[in-house]
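A quick word before the example. In earlier lectures we treated sequence and structure as two separate objects. From today on, think of them as two lines of the same record. Here is 2Fe-2S ferredoxin-type domain-containing protein written that way.
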Amino acid sequence: MEKDMGIVSVSRLCQERDLFVSASASANSMESPGSATDQKPEIELEFIGPKPESDGKYPVERAKAISGEKLLRNIMSDNKIELYATYGKVMNCGGGGSCGTCIVEILDGNDLLNERTNTELRYLKKNPESWRLACQTIVGNKENSGKVVVQRIPQWKK
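And the structure line, produced from the sequence above:
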């Protein structure tokens, strides 16, 4: 009789486990990965080329980034979007904020970026407010989303 009860107990445990696994699977299927609650806010970016093409239009490159997670310089680098003028390619500081060669102009969406840093205030004091150092510019604040339009190498427009 003890053996039978042992078998019944094991059988019952298996049934209860199967019910638990089944209930857990049902609960998990309701929480699909990538549901709206899991999604982090995104910032869309448009990068306008520094010089017009032969048709007179400026080239546009696009990228997306999770809000508040990356510097503008890193987004451009990750997406292979040219940031530096000729001399800046060999003479930049690698994102340390000590050279001023990663200048961009924010044409739209400045409210989606961090405030100018002290480094930017020092390097850009004689330039328009819309000019930023890509290595100092955080895209988003982890909560906002929207679109930022960036003019690459704005000093070539003069």
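Notice the following. The beta strands are 42-48, 60-66, 70-71, 103-108, 131-133, 138-139, 146-152. We will return to this example when we discuss secondary structure assignment.
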